[in-house]
Design goal:
Layout: H1 2-7, E1 21-32, E2 35-47, E3 52-56, H2 63-70, E4 78-83, E5 86-87, H3 93-103, E6 104-108, H4 119-129, H5 134-147, H6 163-175, E7 181-185, H7 193-210, E8 213-217, H8 221-224, E9 229-234, E10 237-243
Parallel strand pairs: 3-8, 3-9, 6-7, 7-8
Antiparallel strand pairs: 1-2, 1-4, 4-5, 9-10
């Protein structure tokens, strides 16, 4: 699998010298009636191109809110956020959506696959929305599914797949547009330990092959062990930002077996 990944064109790089993601003085508050909840409190964070960063912390600490702000999914925030070198604050909703579509991919805990579409059609969808048509969209989607070990599942519906296989489809969909930055919110949260290791090995392989930036929100130490950096949060603040020596997962050094496809 790795040699196929290495043949794929690299994503468009960030402007020279710019961070993949940067937040300065980032704050976010939610109002529930008379109560104001400060989800983020003055967060400063810079993530360089090609890093694989894990954001960890207890439930309610603000890690998913941080990811949503960095990805441009939240608009009403204090401070500054730049995605792929572009400040988000002054962008219109349309321009922000175009930037997300061009620069970002998303992987969710719940997979978010369309149940009535085949695996292939799910992966093709971002290409079709982005204006890629016909044979090109089909070939790129098939190539990405081959790369994640699902070439023999392209006509299946999501309900016919295991959890690990569904997450591989979600990864293929996130990467098919060759984004510079991939955001993953608890990508192994619905998987058993073996499938979770498979998924993180795949993410690590893709990060190494293309130098794509990955930002992974997780509560699992095993997932964070694959990262270059671990950012720890509590009560809406970054309380630690630590360089890490990524743990090499045994599956990352070899092609994933397409016949196995995960055990979720």
């Amino acid at each position: 699998m790795l040699h196929r990944l290495l043949r794929r064109p690299a994503p468009v790089p960030n402007p020279p010298g710019s961070a993949a993601l940067e937040a300065r003085g980032l704050g976010k508050a939610y109002r529930a009636g008379p109560v104001v909840v400060e989800a983020l409190r003055g967060v400063d964070l810079r993530i360089e191109p090609g890093e694989l960063v894990a954001i960890m912390g207890p439930s309610g600490c603000g890690k998913t809110t941080l990811l949503n702000c960095l990805a441009g999914l939240e608009t009403d925030f204090a401070g500054e956020v730049a995605l792929a070198g572009v400040p988000l604050r002054d962008l219109s909703d349309e321009r922000r959506a175009r930037l997300r579509a061009r620069a970002s991919g998303f992987i969710f805990q719940s997979f978010n696959l369309l149940p009535t579409l085949s695996v292939l059609e799910n992966v093709e969808m971002p290409l079709l929305i982005g204006g890629v048509r016909g044979r090109t969209a089909r070939e790129r989607a098939l190539g990405m599914l081959d790369a994640v070990g699902l070439a023999d599942r392209v006509e299946h519906r999501p309900a016919q797949l295991s959890g690990g296989q569904q997450q591989r489809v979600a990864i293929a969909r996130a990467l098919v547009n060759r984004p510079a930055i991939v955001f993953a919110d608890e990508p192994t949260g619905n998987l058993d330990s073996e499938s979770a290791e498979d998924v993180m090995a795949l993410i690590r392989t893709l990060n190494l092959a293309h130098g794509q930036t990955f930002v992974v929100v997780t509560h699992a130490a095993d997932v964070a062990a694959s990262a270059h950096r671990v950012v720890r949060m509590r009560d809406g603040r970054v309380v630690a930002d630590e360089a890490a020596r990524p743990r090499l997962l045994h599956r990352a050094s070899m092609p994933l077996d397409p016949a196995a496809g995960g055990h979720g």
